[in-house]
Write a structure and sequence with these properties.
Elements: H1 5-39, H2 50-78, H3 81-108, H4 112-124, H5 131-143, H6 153-157, E1 172-173, E2 176-177, H7 192-237
Antiparallel strand pairs: 1-2
Helix pairs in contact: 1-2, 1-7, 2-3, 2-7, 3-7, 4-7
Length: 239
């Protein structure tokens, strides 16, 4: 049975909303994948599970969004009460998940510096003997263009030579790469602690912003769906 009046408008608004909903799903998926790629090399230096699981949660949510958008579109076009209710329930669950990721993103970054500091101190002593630690620290010093924890002096404080990754684009003389020293032209003079914390906080704030922002948009979808489902049910009850 066709809907009349204002509820017919809600029906088409909801259909348009689902197109937007599918786009937000794509945004969530892309943000989740990028956050996972950008944070993965540094996971060993934080104890905060948020940075390990939040990107994965967003990736899963992004995939589910496409399925939910299908139920919403079909339910709106066919005026199917069951599909609309299914859409509303899934959308509400997604809303809660995204809101949780967003709130966690704003809260968890406050303890990040202590966690990173503790893990960097533990890792730098393992640099000469643990290949995995060596690889991770080299990635950090190369990507963030930093050296040591608070400063390059941390290497000497631990009785270790300055790694080659504390320099960028070292000169090659007679096939031999020049040693990296504090006098090298492309020497990284800043410590990694501050840069790594800022990098991880930026990831957390992006996840938080996307989670809360899109969750609020999707809350409108729950309202539209509930209004449409109630209208469809009342139309059939009056027949």
């Amino acid at each position: 049975m066709a809907l009349e009046g204002g509820m017919s408008c809600v029906k088409y608004l909801m259909f348009c909303f689902n197109l937007l909903f599918a786009i937000t799903g794509l945004i969530i998926l892309i943000v989740g994948i990028r956050a996972e790629i950008n944070s993965y090399p540094y996971m060993n230096f934080t104890d905060e599970n948020f940075y390990k699981f939040a990107p994965i949660v967003l990736i899963i949510v992004g995939i589910i969004v496409f399925i939910v958008a299908f139920f919403g579109c079909c339910g709106a076009v066919k005026e199917n009460h069951c599909m609309i209710i299914t859409f509303s329930v899934f959308l509400l669950i997604i809303f809660v998940a995204e809101l949780a990721v967003g709130i966690a993103g704003y809260m968890k970054h406050t303890d990040l510096e202590d966690s990173v500091m503790r893990n960097l101190n533990a890792s730098i002593t393992q640099y000469p003997v643990d290949k995995n630690v060596q690889k991770t620290i080299d990635i950090i010093q190369t990507d963030l263009q930093c050296c040591g924890i608070n400063s390059p002096a941390d290497w000497a404080d631990h009785g270790l030579p300055i790694p080659s990754t504390c320099c960028s684009a070292q000169e090659i003389n007679d096939g031999v790469v020049a040693a990296c020293t504090e006098n090298s032209t492309n020497f990284h003079s800043k410590g990694c602690l501050t840069k790594l914390v800022v990098h991880m906080k930026d990831i957390g704030m992006v996840l938080a912003g996307v989670g809360v922002g899109i969750a609020l948009v999707q809350l409108l979808g729950v309202i539209f769906a509930c209004c449409l489902a109630r209208s469809i049910r009342s139309q059939y009850e009056t027949v």
